[in-house]
Amino acid sequence: MGASKTEHFSTEQNTIATLIKALSHPARVAIIEYLLKVDACICGDIVDELPLSQPTVSQHLKELKTAGLIKGTVEGTAICYCIDETAIAKLQSYFNHLAQTLEQKNNGCCG
Amino acid sequence: MGASKTEHFSTEQNTIATLIKALSHPARVAIIEYLLKVDACICGDIVDELPLSQPTVSQHLKELKTAGLIKGTVEGTAICYCIDETAIAKLQSYFNHLAQTLEQKNNGCCG
DNA sequence: TCGTTATATTGCAATATTACGATAAATAAA
DNA sequence: TTTATTTATCGTAATATTGCAATATAACGA
Predict the structure, then answer these.
(1) Architecture of A12-103 per CATH?
(2) Which residue among A103, A107, B69, B90 is least enclosed by CB atoms within 10 Å?
(3) Which long-range contacts (CB under 8 A, 24 or more apart) does A59-65 make?
(4) What ranges do the domains of chain A cover?
């Protein structure tokens, strides 16, 4: 196969998996961390920053954008990318929820 | 290609990407949520719970285990799986860090 | 208009992932 | 030992992902 049977899972499960998947590649983690590091929301310096070709970086940016993790604004010839806080907040609250629930039920594995 | 150029990224970036990747499939999200829901760390009821065949579920469990998100203990014929809190804590702190850093630098995209 | 710069898209090759049937391995019970 | 039960592994097909060269597109300045 190779295709996930997404239709069998809940909308919430698919939503969170999609969001998480966008960050499941070191290049995309690096992009997010770079956008976080530079104070302004720098544009295609990302290409210079990463050890990947321009088309490859462009593709990773597209994936991040599609997933809602970053936003892009046209700025003349250049395009300015920046992190979408909403998506990060969603991920943050998801993992906080997991950790919190775990803590509450003293997760002693199989006694 | 198809192979990620992991060697060009930092260890930390690869580590977090690997951990995140383990959760980038709705079935694996569902497994984690199920393990969180049931109080005891139930074993192969997961197979009954998911709309996937036993070999497929076994494969997903293996991925989660390899990534360190779950632990497994032999319990007679059965195997008892449960969440590894350490991994969840790592993810939690990573996203908390992202959100916190974002907040501190009032991320007005390309204002 | 033409050239330059910045980014996106296309096309393709290499590899990875997802899923499952068949089968193996391991343990428990009879 | 034999049989049933549970989980893992193997083999394989379908599909997705990663990466890049080549090319297209878009916007600016001369």
Answers:
(1) Orthogonal Bundle (1.10)
(2) A103
(3) A60/A25, A60/A27, A60/A28, A60/A31, A61/A31, A63/A22, A63/A28, A64/A22, A64/A28, A64/A31, A64/A32
(4) 12-103
